[in-house]
Amino acid sequence: GNSVTQMEGPVTLSEEAFLTINCTYTATGYPSLFWYVQYPGEGLQLLLKATKADDKGSNKGFEATYRKETTSFHLEKGSVQVSDSAVYFCALSGSGGYNKLIFGAGTRLAVHP
Amino acid sequence: DTEVTQTPKHLVMGMTNKKSLKCEQHMGHRAMYWYKQKAKKPPELMFVYSYEKLSINESVPSRFSPECPNSSLLNLHLHALQPEDSALYLCASSQDGTVNTGELFFGEGSRLTVL
Asked: A-contacting residues of B 83-112, CB under 8 Å?
């Protein structure tokens, strides 16, 4: 079945450091891929998405490229801020409609000044 | 208005109590969702309503009973819960539940503690 694997956290960085959070997936067909972010005490927010191979999603300085050959969708940011501290979830759209998302386990990011 | 509003934010209940969680959105979305999130885990889908009809029930125990009175409101009725049901319950909505855009709008959640 479809699944998403994320790198284990927590990831601890200093402000202005480069961020990579790895995400790989297993899926039949051609799912869309997503990154959601959950700030402390809040619900999830869609950060970015890509709907087909080689698409690059970007938002708020974050980027991720849909790599079909490596079944990956790694999240990157060139210079993180303290305000980026949150839990990041990689997800893919399951089959059968109804926006049935399959989430990875989540990666906690802590950014220190 | 791009918000999904959930009430209450916190709920403590005993195993014999009956309570309800409420969710409201005014974005004109036609699909609404309940997710359950345990600590340090990803959200798990419980129910999907599309055009006010229950479309997906992920084999959720009957002690959880969803209700969609209209396209803006979603309730989750709770009865005879177990301590292991303690979790953050997230409501979400999307524009159209039949198209896989993957773009869900989440509320802040209702944190439930069952004693």
From this structure: 90, 92, 94, 97-109
